[in-house]
Amino acid sequence: MFVDRAVLHVAGGSGGHGCASVHREKFKPLGGPDGGNGGRGGSVRLVADASATTLLEYHHAPHRVAANGRPGTGSLRHGASGEDLVLRVPAGTVVKDAADGRVLADLVDVGTDVELAPGGAGGLGNAALATTRRKAPGFALLGEPGWSGDVVLELKSLADVALVGFPSAGKSSLVAALSAARPKIADYPFTTLVPNLGVVVAGQERFVVADVPGLVEGASEGRGLGLEFLRHVERTAAIVHVLDCATLEPGRDPLSDLEVIEAELARYAVDLTATGEPGLPLEQRPTLVVLHKMDVPEARELAELVRPDLEARGLEVLEVSSASHEGLRELSFAMARLVRRAREQAPAPAAPRVVLRPRAVDETGFTVVREEAEDATDGVRFRVRGTKPERWVRQTDFSNDEAVGFLADRLAKLGVEDDLFAAGAVAGSEVVIGADDAPRGAVVFDWDPTLVGGAELLAGPRGEDARLAGEGRRTTQERRREQAERKDARARTQAELDAERREERRAAAAGRSAGSGGRDRA
């Protein structure tokens, strides 16, 4: 079965968690931390392979997940990285985002390797987190989840010449007569269901001919199978119209067939986003007209009638018979001329350029946005977005108080706290880090700012000192009062947290006592 389109659900492996361990050995009571790092998760990769000819494998099994990384262990043993999952696809496969149709990759050449779903990074163990100030960390970082999403694989034949025409016009017979390909040929009342490829040699030129089936009136609008196979014409340099001069269907003749097929090619929107395609609309590409089945006497008579009209339109016309091989040599050399001209006119491939985008001096790597929300505290929440804050949140074990404190120190050092203060956040304000649709969700907490000195409270343009401005300058008493208000707010927040923890401990103790009393009665 031939499948040229498949929706793939891929997910990279998750990174292994870091290990929090302490070295234990006789006569060494202070061995220090020795927790190893977690291994990186495996990635899902696509490779263009010459042995692959269809996407049938991914049509039946669309869910693909790479292996997870192993967690770290004690004695400084790092976890093993997850093995990459390599998916082999035919050359000419285009990878698109399933959500917006954006082209992610175009695997034109055999051997092209693309990382489709990168694996998550492994978490650091407590040995890697130890510093001169934090000599024995009692926590480790968690591994990150791998990327997951849906992509669309579309196969576009890598052919130089496309044979187009109505069903039963003899396109498959021409491919079999011109090349070593042997497609299944019979007097079907329907069209071929598989595009057939054949390699043709004419003099010094070697090119690929494709039989594109399923073209009928209305194909560009989805009628029949034409829309499914028109994508196989996009990469071709020339188009050959195969006109059946021996058809017995009423209302059909070579001129009307040509007009119908040209109209469908003109209506089809060529995808110009992928790389490696000619880029011209289908109706503007070099064209040949083949009057087929000249071995039938009635066909030869009809060809003599319509040939002057076709040549009057400026078309090159050839009379061919696949059964008797009449005109096949002339047809092969005519197609070779078109292919050679297209190859000579093709622009030379541009050399890959390395683009350096240095980070701006004032770039912080994160943003703080004030959001109005009815369900937030005081109707306002502050959302923090950025690569580093979101990655740090994913790596934090929130069941460990020391790990949470480490996260707070990292955020403060990055400058998140200063930006929250500048955005108008106060003690107790609702702060969200990350997006709501993230794999592990966003982290929501009530902000508890650290105390800052008086010099850090001076906000003003660079190079200016607000204390020297005559108007609006706060007095020493006002600054002390603001600092005292912040201290009081922090004390109230801490008291509320302490009360909640005491209540949780009392509830847990009551539950344990009730359980032990029940066992005694039993």
From TrEMBL:
It is found in: Cytoplasm. It is an enzyme of class 3 (hydrolase). Residues 358-449 form the OCT domain. Its cofactor is Mg(2+). InterPro entries: G_OBG, GTP-bd, GTP-bd_Obg/CgtA, GTP-bd_prot_GTP1/OBG_C_sf, GTP1-OBG_CS, GTP1_OBG_dom, GTP1_OBG_dom_sf, OBG_GTPase. Gene3D superfamilies: GTP-binding protein OBG, C-terminal domain (3.30.300.350), GTP1/OBG domain (2.70.210.12), P-loop containing nucleotide triphosphate hydrolases (3.40.50.300). Residues 462-507 have a biased composition (Basic and acidic residues). Mg(2+) binds at residues 172, 192. The keyword Hydrolase applies. Residues 159-340 form the OBG-type G domain. Residues 462-522 are annotated as: Disordered. The keyword DNA-binding does not apply. Its EC number is 3.6.5.-. Residues 1-158 form the Obg domain. GTP binds at residues 165-172, 190-194, 211-214, 321-323. Keywords: Cytoplasm, GTP-binding, Hydrolase, Magnesium, Metal-binding, Nucleotide-binding. An essential GTPase which binds GTP, GDP and possibly (p)ppGpp with moderate affinity, with high nucleotide exchange rates and a fairly low GTP hydrolysis rate. Plays a role in control of the cell cycle, stress response, ribosome biogenesis and in those bacteria that undergo differentiation, in morphogenesis control. NCBIfam families: Obg_CgtA (TIGR02729), Obg_CgtA_exten (TIGR03595), PRK12296.1 (NF008954), PRK12297.1 (NF008955), PRK12299.1 (NF008956). Monomer. HAMAP family: GTPase_Obg (MF_01454). This is GTPase Obg. The lineage of its organism: Bacteria, Bacillati, Actinomycetota, Actinomycetes, Kineosporiales. The gene is obgE.
